[in-house]
Specification:
Length: 86
């Protein structure tokens, strides 16, 4: 195992919150398959779905993007706040 690869595994375990490399890899693989689409589990990936929505509507809001990209592996939330004259 190279130093670079070891650093990536350490970063992955930190990013996923998993305690072991194997669990971190499982989490990352699950996320990748959901995003890209796999023929059996996820025929249409989330990235493709997002592109389809944007193509159909002409634009996509940040809230809609968050809704499509949100997964158990990596939560994506959108929050909007306004403030005038604190």
């Amino acid at each position: 195992m190279t130093d670079s690869r070891e650093r990536r595994f350490d970063a992955l375990t930190d990013a996923t919150g998993e305690k072991t490399k194997s669990k971190a890899l499982d989490t990352a693989v699950g996320y990748y398959l959901k995003m890209s689409g796999s023929r059996s589990s996820y025929p249409t990936g989330r990235v493709e779905k997002l592109m389809q929505i944007a193509d159909q509507r002409g634009s996509v809001t940040a809230a809609e993007i968050a809704e499509v990209l949100d997964t158990d592996e990596l939560s994506v939330n959108f929050e909007q706040r306004w403030s005038v004259g604190d």
